[in-house]
């Protein structure tokens, strides 16, 4: 499975970044983050692609490998834009999106990819490698099942009452 990771989103979720870091501090935080990902994914049948925002980058850079983690900077775009483009480029059957951002999560759902909140992904990374590829988490809003009688009662209770004829 390939995990498309909204990198700064996950970095903030795990406490490896904070707003207002100077450039050198952000670079060190990114390196710690990528080291953590590379160590955590070792022994698993998974490909990690960390996508970073790079709206203010002076030049584009190709996707690179960092200790087995694919690293991509979204030149003059957001990571959200880049992840949506990556999702549109290929089949989503063996792709999972990792983000707490609703836009990124919805883009993954629309393309048929598995969607993981940052916390769910960290739980999977923290489990022993024998756990294999995680099953997609349950939907955020499970669909309730109602019997025909329950549905009729709800419709009766919440439907607009019929208009009365004026005399």
Description:
The protein has 167 residues and is an alpha/beta fold. The chain has one domain (2-141): 3-Layer(aba) Sandwich (Rossmann fold), CATH 3.40.50. It contains six helices and six strands. The chain has helices at residues 7-13, 23-41, 79-89, 102-111, 118-126, 148-158; strands at 2-6, 47-54, 64-66, 69-75, 95-98, 114-116. The chain has a six-stranded mixed β-sheet, with helices on both faces. A hairpin with a 2-residue loop joins β3 and β4 (69-75). α3 runs parallel beside α4 (102-111). The longest helix is centred in the N-terminal third of the chain and has 19 residues, at 23-41. The radius of gyration is 21 Å and the shape is elongated. The N and C termini lie far apart (69 Å). The model has no long low-confidence stretch (mean pLDDT 85).
What is the strand and helix layout of this fold?
Blueprint: E1 2-6, H1 7-13, H2 23-41, E2 47-54, E3 64-66, E4 69-75, H3 79-89, E5 95-98, H4 102-111, E6 114-116, H5 118-126, H6 148-158
Parallel strand pairs: 1-2, 1-5, 2-4, 5-6
Antiparallel strand pairs: 3-4
Helix pairs in contact: 3-4
Please provide the ordered H/E string of secondary-structure elements. EHHEEEHEHEHH
Give the N-to-C terminal Cα separation.
69 Å
Number of domains: 1
Report the total helices: 6
Helical fraction? 40-55%
Uncertain segments are: none
Residue-averaged pLDDT: 85
Percent range for β-strand residues: 15-25%
Q: Which CATH architecture?
A: 3-Layer(aba) Sandwich
Q: Which CATH top level class fits?
A: Alpha Beta
Gyration radius over CA: 21 Å
CATH fold label = Rossmann fold
Major β-sheet strand ordering: 3-4-2-1-5-6
Shape: elongated
What's the total count of β strands? 6
Largest sheet: 6 strands, mixed
Give the class from helix and strand content and strand pairing: alpha/beta
């Amino acid at each position: 499975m390939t995990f498309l990771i909204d990198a700064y989103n996950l970095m903030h979720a795990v406490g490896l970044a904070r707003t207002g870091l100077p450039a050198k501090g952000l670079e060190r935080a990114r390196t710690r983050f990528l080291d953590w990902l590379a160590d955590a994914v070792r022994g698993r049948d998974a490909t990690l692609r960390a996508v970073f925002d790079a709206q203010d980058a002076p030049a584009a850079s190709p996707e690179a490998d960092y200790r087995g983690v694919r690293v991509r900077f979204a030149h003059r775009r957001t990571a959200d834009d880049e992840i949506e483009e990556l999702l549109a480029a290929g089949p989503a059957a063996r792709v999972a999106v990792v983000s707490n951002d609703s836009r990124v999560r919805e883009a993954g759902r629309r393309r048929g990819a598995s969607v993981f909140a940052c916390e769910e992904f960290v739980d999977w990374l923290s489990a022993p490698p024998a756990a294999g590829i995680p099953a997609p988490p349950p939907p955020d809003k499970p669909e309730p099942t109602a019997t025909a009688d329950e549905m009729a009662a709800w419709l009766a209770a919440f439907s607009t009452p019929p208009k009365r004829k004026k005399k």
